[in-house]
Every structure is written in structure tokens, then in C-alpha cells.
Amino acid sequence: MKFNEYVKGESYRTESIQLSKKDIIDFAKFYDPQYMHVDETKAKEGRFGSLIASGMQTMNTSFKLWVELGLYGEDIVAGTGMNHIKFIKPVFPDDEIHVLAEVVDLAPKRNYGGIVTVLLTTFNQHNEKVFQAELSALISN
Fold first, then answer.
1. Residue-level pLDDT at 127
2. Average pLDDT over residues 108-126
3. Fewest Cβ atoms nearer than 10 Å: which of 47, 58, 112, 113?
4. How far does CA 4 lie from the centroid of its chain?
5. Radius of gyration over alpha carbons of the chain, in Å?
6. Cα 24–chain centre separation
7. Which whole-number Å values give the CA distances from 14 to 1, 30, 60, 120, in the listed order?
8. pTM (2 decimals)?
9. Half-sphere exposure of 112 (CA within 13 A, CB side)
10. For 65-79, how does the pLDDT look when each residue is reduced to its tens digit (9 = 90+)?
């Protein structure tokens, strides 16, 4: 979508994706090798009683789901920021997550489209909020 096609307050729901135990461990081994993400035995003894997905994986998966909606398409120039990042609840193996993206700000740029800011709110299969962040991107006209 072009910058001028976005409407403040408009919301979009993504598809869902399930994160398996293997997905969680594989991601964490490479990007966040802490025990609660890679060591099932230790994780069972920890606060959550199970392996949990890395917050970085939840954030990346949320972004992936948003991008896969295809609204940015070829009109995106670049991401410009991510603010107010909140890891609200853990994502466990076999949880299924989806994102609700709400356009919260539109900032026109003099010579080139503008900045679109969306509030990404990620939910699990129980409709519990697990992640939230504002994501901004420069979009052409």
C-alpha cells in the first residue's frame, strides 16, 4: 500500500503460526542460547515449568506475520524504528500465535510518502496477549 492509502485506526489481523519445540530450540541455539530456550530439563525446573520461545523469536515471528500480509509490498523503503517493546507472556512449544496490527500514526514526509507506525499486538491461541511493540516504516507514495 502507498502511504496515502493507510488510515489511522485501521486494524489488520495476520494468519497464525505454530512454534514447535524444535523451532524454539533451533532459533535459540543460534540467537539466544539461554537454558529456558534450549535445555528442556533445566527449563522444567524454572519459573515457567517448560521451554519457552525467546522474546527475540516472538518479536521476529510477529514481524514476519505482519510482513506476510503483504501491505508494505514494494512501497516500503525502510524500517525506521521499533518502540515500546513488551514481552508480556511466554510463548510455549506448540503455541499458535497471530498478530493484530493497528495503524497508530501517520507522519507525512515533505518529498517522499511518510512514516507509518503500527502497533503490533501478538496473541496466543487462548487470545492472551504475549507481545506488543510499535513498528515504524518509511512508505512511498
1. 98
2. 95
3. 47
4. 24
5. 17
6. 15
7. 16, 26, 14, 10
8. 0.95
9. 8
10. 999 999 999 999 999
